[in-house]
Amino acid sequence: MTAFFALATSLLWGLADFGGGLLTRRTPALTVVVVSQGIAATVLGAIVLATGGFSEAGPRLWFAFAAGLVGPVALFSFYKALALGPMGVVSPLATLSVAVPVGVGLLLGERPGLTQVAGIAVAVTGVVLAGGPQLKGAPVQRQAILLTLVAALGFGTVFALITEASRSVTGLFLALFVQRLTNVAAGGIALHTSVKRGGEALPVGGFPWASLPALAFVGLADVAANGTYSVAAQHGPITVAAVLASLYPVVTALAARGFLRERLRGIQAAGAGLALVGTLLLATG
Q1: Which residues of 83-112 are buried (b: 16+ CB within 10 A; e: fewer)?
Q2: Structure pTM?
Q3: Residue 85: its pLDDT value, please?
Q4: pLDDT tens column, 61-85
Q5: What is the 3-state secondary structure (H, E, C) of the chain?
Q6: Distance separating alpha carbons of residues 60 and 171, to the nearest angstrom
Q7: Which of 103, 220, 247, 265 is deepest in the core (most CB within 10 A)?
Q8: How confident is the model at residue 89 (pLDDT cuts 50, 70, 90)?
Q9: Would you give the end-to-end CA distance of the chain in angstroms?
């Protein structure tokens, strides 16, 4: 069950990142975040009402609130780092986020077997290579490295926090709803501040209504990924769940290959293969 839900997480996050990347080519990134998360919050609110999830309110929701605050900071840092580039360094480096939940799992007493340890090492190596790390070229700005590390720490922290936010299905819906409301509030404040400083909230042609289904997909896929990761981490070792969930860069690369006909570099193809081997080792260990 852990492997299934963790792999579902990587699939959903990978597709959400791919869709979000396409949307930000035409629409400001902050707007994409706020609108997509707003749609997700609306759907989750309806689900919580239908399932009576508000009865699950309790102290654990503070974990969801914290995840909602950390998530936008991590995302904005990641986008800024990608803008400073090079992406061939930023993208693979961001996968260090897996260190946070893995570290939490080890602190809680989890001790993976030898096969799983080998799987973790192979899978993480594969994910880094699948990002197509840039091994040559101009020096990387220190600011880009710092922002990427902030993003990685933030993403990993969200992994750990959302796992603690609930212990039941209805409670999980409520936790995700609180997280999304906090995301929208924090993102909205950042967007307002950006506009006051002269930034753009909308593309030249106005709000991209034709992109609304894609924005909805990005938001709902992201929230579904948080949900499947929480289930994976609660029903099995956090170390295994975190590593398998971190395979989303491979999904993004393959989606770009399939939909945009982007050619995979040799190092990316090798990374995807290693990630698959690591997945099999983890699943069978």
Answers
A1: ebbbebbbbbbbbbbbebbbebbeeeeeeb
A2: 0.80
A3: 59
A4: 999 999 999 988 887 787 677 667 5
A5: CHHHHHHHHHHHHHHHHHHHHHHCCCCCHHHHHHHHHHHHHHHHHHHHHHHCHHHHCCCCHHHHHHHHHHHHHHHHHHHHHHHHCCHHHHHHHHHHHHHHHHHHHHHCCCCCCHHHHHHHHHHHHHHHHHCCCCCCCCCCCHHHHHHHHHHHHHHHHHHHHHHHCCCCHHHHHHHHHHHHHHHHHHHHHHHHHHHHCCCCCCCCCCCCHHHHHHHHHHHHHHHHHHHHHHHHHHCCCHHHHHHHHCCHHHHHHHHHHHHCCCCCCHHHHHHHHHHHHHHHHHHHC
A6: 9
A7: 247
A8: low
A9: 13
Most confident of 187-191, 237-241, 271-275: 187-191
**Which class for 274: exposed (0-12), middle (13-18), buried (19 or more C-beta within 10 A)?**
buried
The count of other CB atoms within 10 Å of the CB of residue 198 is 6
Sign of CA dihedral 78, 81, 82, 83: positive
pLDDT tens track for 114-158? 887 887 788 778 767 765 655 555 455 677 778 878 888 888 898
